[in-house]
Amino acid sequence: MLAEGAIAPDLTIGEWSLAAALKKGPVLLTFFKIACPTCQLTMPFLDRLAGAAQVVAISQDDRTGTDQFRKRFNVAMPAMLDTGPAFTASNLYGIRNVPSLFLVEPHGKISMAETGFSRAHLEQLGKRFDVPVFHAGEDIPIFRPG
What we know:
With about 150 residues, this protein is α/β, with parallel strands linked by helices. It has one domain: Glutaredoxin, CATH 3.40.30.10. It has helices at about 20, 35-45, 65-70, 90, 120-130, and strands spanning about 10-15, 15, 25-30, 55-60, 80, 100-105, 110-115, 115-120, 145. The chain starts with 11 loop residues before the first strand and ends with a strand.
């Protein structure tokens, strides 16, 4: 998996382009699979950032399954497809486990690279984008591996 400090490979998925998105500010890429329990936990929290930050989900599943996942877990952020057998985007970023998150800065450098669910990292993202990722009374684990 690409590490913090690496230059993010450019992605073009359908009509969406990372290079074009970076002109508007940082982009949080999140690679996921619909059957992944840690992804199911993580995605709704990431969706809370989507109003203040550019958050792009990259699904390793088909459109029907991805759309059902988004509806089931109330996830509104855009979801691009990176399907097999090539999994081009996942391979460019060295994805071995999901969820995998990359915060890509406008100059193209990765400032955060994370696999799994980390409450601390999500809190940092919330502070960065001035969005409460967690709400009072929610039972939030500290970490779950991807």
